[in-house]
Amino acid sequence: MVKVPIKLVSWDEITEWARVLSMKIKDSGWLPDIVVAIARGGYAPARLVCDYLGISDLISLQVVHWPSTAQVAEKAYIKYPLSVDLSGKKVLVIDDIVDTGDSIQLAKEYIERNNKNVEVRTAASSGYQPLPSSSLITGQLRLGIGFGLFIHGTSLRT
């Protein structure tokens, strides 16, 4: 059985992560037209970021990498794809935790592959490891052991 490191977090911690993440996004000078939450963990942070940034368009995409608690699927896959055209949009994909980076990377690639002239950036409220450095735009702000804020994209390099 796979041992998964866990940390119980309070609602106050989640809202603070979303607030700080929103500030970093604002400071980058790039604001999304729409936010895509990775179901299910990305729902709360995505909604909070939308509120902090004043964004009303929020949709979700279900990526499965953890089919049940503490069990890892061999490969992440999209269970329920998007049925909306995001062509020409600036899209922010948000998840709660980046474990391997597979889920958030798959969502980013899926959106890019299925929409024309779309600019996709990704963010997670906490994580164990960031996405590959080629997509990192602002680095990480450490909030505690094993947790940090990550914002990823393809421009605005540090």
Descriptive notes:
- This protein is α/β, with parallel strands linked by helices and 158 residues long.
- It has one domain (11-152): Rossmann fold (3-Layer(aba) Sandwich), CATH 3.40.50.
- 27% of the residues lie in helices and 32% in strands.
- The protein has 3 helices and 7 strands; from the N terminus they run αβαβββαβββ.
- Strands 3-2-1-4-5-7-6 form a 7-stranded mixed beta sheet, sandwiched between helices.
- It is globular.
- The model is unreliable at 128-158 (pLDDT under 50).
Brief summary of the model shown:
The chain is of the alpha/beta class and 158 residues long.
Key attributes of the depicted protein:
single chain, 158 residues, alpha/beta, globular
Present the secondary structure layout.
Elements: H1 11-28, E1 34-39, H2 43-53, E2 58-64, E3 77-80, E4 90-98, H3 102-114, E5 119-127, E6 136-144, E7 147-152
Parallel strand pairs: 1-2, 1-4, 4-5
Antiparallel strand pairs: 2-3, 5-7, 6-7
Helix pairs in contact: 1-2
Domain tally: 1
The Rg value, from CA coordinates, equals 15 Å
CATH architectural group: 3-Layer(aba) Sandwich
CATH class: Alpha Beta
- What are the low-pLDDT stretches, counting only 5+ consecutive residues below 50? 128-158
Beta strand %: 25-35%
How many DSSP helices? Answer: 3
Order of helices and strands: HEHEEEHEEE
Question: Which range best describes the helical content: under 10%, 10-25%, 25-40%, 40-55%, 55-70% or over 70%?
Answer: 25-40%
Euclidean distance between termini CA atoms = 38 Å
Summarize the biggest pleated sheet: 7 strands, mixed
- Side by side, the strands of the main sheet go 3-2-1-4-5-7-6
Q: What do we call the CATH topology?
A: Rossmann fold
Mean pLDDT across all amino acids: 76
